Amino acid sequence: MMKSGLYEPVPTCWCYNQDDPVFNPATSASASYIVVPCGSPACDALLLNDRRCHAGKCGYKVNYADGSYTKGTLMLEALTFGQMRIQNMAMGCGHNNQGSFNVIAGLLGLGGGRMSFVNQIPKTGGAFSYCLPSYSILSPGWLRFGRGLGGAFPVGVAWASLVYNPRALNFYYVGLLGLGVGVLAYPYLKTFFG
């Protein structure tokens, strides 16, 4: 499941029943785990409507279009992918996760905002591609970050330039130039798409 944040529940959470064990940062062996304080640059990078502060800790609440939501504490952690180690990757540690997450133990944020997982990884240029099957289908998929990083892409793969919308940073937009059906091409009609 992919949404717009990376969050893992902790033991004192009001959560759905997940397949994997609950992650508890207080008892983990991580030496790089840091709780983000309020007023820090990482906390300030959260969208204002998503940011909550409690007892000096940076909290968040993210609502999704289907009514699902996650609330928790923002943290920094070091992540390793092959030979690449990323220090201070911002992620959420959910305490109250409700909605259509099924049995998924975490969310991976691929939105367009600054706190997106893909925008925190160096050398990707914010680019990624994926082919992910449904959680219930037992077949492999793939997720690649960057243009061409992590293996060759199939012949015919094209990259679309995205349109930036300062009022909705986490969403992706493409410019519409026209419509085509089969060999018939229709010019872009601004009156239809205003």
UniProtKB/TrEMBL annotation:
Chain ranges passing through the membrane:
145-164, 170-189
Source organism, top-level taxon: Eukaryota
- According to the entry, every stretch annotated as the Xylanase inhibitor N-terminal domain falls at 14-146
Q: Name one GO biological process term.
A: proteolysis
Keywords, in A-Z order: Hydrolase, Membrane, Protease, Transmembrane, Transmembrane helix
Alphabetized GO MF terms:
peptidase activity
Q: Does the keyword Acetylation apply?
A: no
**Does the record's keyword annotation contain Chaperone?**
no
User: Which family does the record assign?
Assistant: Belongs to the peptidase A1 family.
Q: What is this protein called?
A: Xylanase inhibitor N-terminal domain-containing protein
Name its species: Acer saccharum
Give the lineage.
Eukaryota, Viridiplantae, Streptophyta, Embryophyta, Tracheophyta
